[in-house]
Amino acid sequence: MQTQPFAAGAEYTQMHPRWPPVKGHGAKFGRKKEAAIAALLAERSHAEAARAVEIDLKTLKRWLRVPEFIAEYRQARWEVVEQAYARAQQNTSAATTVLLMLMADSKTPHSSRIRAALGVFDIAREGLDLDIETRVAALERTAEASKESR
Question: Rounded distance, CA 112 to CA 115, Å?
Answer without folding.
Answer: 5
